[in-house]
Amino acid sequence: MLKLRVILVAFAITFIGSVSANHKSDHSIKERLAPTGKVYREGDDVPVSKPAEVASTGNRDGETVYTASCAMCHSGGIAGAPKTGDAGAWNDRIAKGKEELYKSAIDGFTGDAGMMPPKGGCANCSDEEVKAAVDYLIEQVK
Ligand code: HEC
Question: For ligand 1, what atom is nearest to the CA of residue 92?
Fold first, then answer.
């Protein structure tokens, strides 16, 4: 009777061993055959990366703001805009004082020469960025 038990246990160990060995190789084959990508269908819980932060305002420098929002008119003196760096066009304006020019640029200014749109039309420019662009414009006048 004892002999039979030992044989049964021996069988059992052999059997379990072969099953787990089979299981292992089966698993690694599946792994090797797995597709590299995954298809998501509508309604699936898709892992999404967060969208990039919207270009922040308040920290672009004057030259960047000028290039993006002011140069289109001021670099060529378009539509009556005082041309960048042209002392003749700027000296009288600079004489009004920086604060006055900041105000014109932020709120807009319509004079004899034409129409300066508020913030040059830059909807996401902060007041500080527009002021920096004014400083940049003033610096260009030699
Ligand atoms: C659509 C064209 C246009 C754009 C864009 C524009 N300007 Fe002007 N700007 C003008 C015109 C035209 C004038 C002159 C208005 C006048 O004196 O009749 C002017 C005048 C100015 C003045 C002088 C204001 C004064 O009180 O004499 C400043 C400063 C100025 N612009 C800054 C800027 C800045 C900074 C930007 C960009 C953020 C900008 N402008 C974008 C057309 C533009």
Answer: 27
